[in-house]
Amino acid sequence: MIPNLQLKKGYQCISPSQLSMLAESHNFVSETFNLAPNDYAPYVGRSAFAHKGGVHISAVERNPQTYEHIPPSLVGNSRQIVVSNVSGTSTVRARARHYGINLTEEQILAIVQELKELEGKGYQFEAAEASFELLMLTKHNSYQPKFHLKDHRVSYDALPTENIWHTRIQSTVKVSVGNQEVLEVAEGIGPVSAFDKALRRALVQTFPEIKNFQLTDYKVRLLNSEVGTAANIRVLVEFSDGGQWWSTIGVSKNLLEASYEAVTAGIEYGLRLPDSVK
Questions:
Q1: 80-81 and 148-161: which strand pairing?
Q2: Which residue in 107, 175, 252, 253 has its CB near the most CB atoms, within 10 A?
């Protein structure tokens, strides 16, 4: 209501500096009440200024007023360029510019081609912008991952206790950080939970900010269900550090592999955020 009154009707409700904090306030209130922010909320939602399609994006890049009723910065929001199967070089170029990634035309064409191949396998980057940014970074010559996942294993034990079976799930991960290799083990209520804990435990000494990362959402979708248990599985995970949210994706015929891919990408992306709380 405040932007409607102030920006559309001309009523002075709050100061311009307060108005520019509306999106941040929306996220803060949602986090305080342990709710996921509404991406589709007017003005302050993450998708309130989202754009999709080559011609659409080209027009916005030339003149934002063609598709935006106000500058997003007035309410503390930002423009989102959505990546999908209709994306072309203009979309990739706009996303690279938004992320501050300098790509050559050859690299942009390679990304467009890889994007189409990945979406043929079941990847969908509209809801996993963080994964797409990492995809673009891998094409940049100066890209260096924060860590490498060298090995991971999961074990499942069923333990009887007074005629009641209890399960114990352990995950072992080995990561390389710089010139060091770290091996850690963790238990969880499920294999994904155990993997997430073990990976964090292996990285927290080098990257203490990882303590603030929370896995806030986990979605699983069966893609080609007609082939039964051999179907491809898409996993979307959402992370938050209390002030920022990002989503990553994994696809595989193996649910655990898809989950591990999404979780690993989510932590890698979070460690690259400049505003993560150290």
A1: unpaired
A2: 175
